[in-house]
Amino acid sequence: MPIRSFHPDGGETVRRTIHRGRSVAPAATEENAMNMQNKISQSGSETMLERARRIAPLVRMEAEESERLGTMTPKVVAAMKEAGLFWMLLEEKIGGLQAPMTDCMEAWEEISAADGSAGWSLMANATGTAVPYAFCSEEAVADIYGGEQLPVMAGMLGPGGAATETAEGLQGSGKYRFGSGSLHADWLGSGMFVMDDKIMRKLPDGNPVVRVCWLPRKKVVFESDWDVLGLRGTGSVDYTLTGVTVPEGYHHERATTRGLREWRLYDIGIAGLACAGHTGVALGLMKRALEEITRIAFGKKRPAYQTVLGEQPVFRHDFAYHEASYHAARDFTLRLYAETQDFLEAGGELTPAMRARFRQNVIYVHKVAAEVVRFCYTMGGSEALRNPSDLGRCMRDMYAATQHIFVDTIAMQDIAVPILDEWKAATSERASA
Fold first, then answer.
1. I need a surface site. Which of 171, 368, 390, 425 has the fewest CB within 10 A?
2. Is 345 helix (H, G, I), strand (E, B) or coil?
3. Per residue in 326-338, pLDDT tens?
4. Domains and CATH numbers, the chain
């Protein structure tokens, strides 16, 4: 079971022990892995949360400049590399940090509280960098990850193009949107439908085959078109692939849920990794909004108020309610991922209901977060309205985050099916006992 300890400034930290599992990728010797870890950081046994806290002040200072640039500043990228945060979800044998998922999520929360765009970029890069390592062939992994410096991945893994099989590999083209964190990435992942004589290839369940193809950034043409309401510093630019060839082993099925490496955590699949990342960002934006409204509430008195906002009974009531919502969503999230990782590393195989809960959790947390941030923004008055405003940026970033397809609430109707089946089975079992 997880061992939990409470931190007044960030809720509870879940500390766990990693257990080992399956096959080994020959991408780096133990000596090379140790050298890579030394290059990442000399910080020894620091958790991902501790690493994130160490660089969070810099991230906060650079937030406005990141918005102006449309991507994280070079200083922030360098700090994340030095702290090793891009490689938190890579196995130790390859030079990564192999951190518990809950530790990663707390790090994403911490960076997102410093700057939503930086947290979003980090979670996209950290989860993206784990995907080809988990699901590509051992030969591809040895090539991609076997250099002197570990790579950073990004890209749109959903289908934006189409490809056909050739003797050299998959050959295709495509146009992709929202490649978060791409402008400082070394490799890009891109989803492609596989076509057979202009007919879309299908999986046994009837869904289309979508191969995630990994290519060096030099194969990609970026567009300069990132002009949006929120999450402006994520560098989520569009990009194009034209007539590329992706060798066998450098692409994999997007829907696969069985990792090829030793660490069983990868069995949560691409969808599980993505849900965890997005949830971490939403938690961070809630945390920062609550922090900002607390500062504002005791910093000045609104016109016509007899005392400062923080001493108003209605504000206190609503703040207590929304602060509880933050902790409830956070505790639900950390428990879900801690229990999932324990289950996988004990040799378990996730059921459809277990997988549905990743999406259930991310949608639920975003709904809660939107309400919490809106409350804080509304109570912030003109200080939240006038730029530059940290609370105003939280509002814009949060409501940009709610537009992602992964948190579309209509998906709840499909998510409910396996979860209802689980409840029905448990009810029937009790009735027959």
1. 425
2. helix
3. 999 999 999 999 9
4. 3-145 (1.10.540.10)
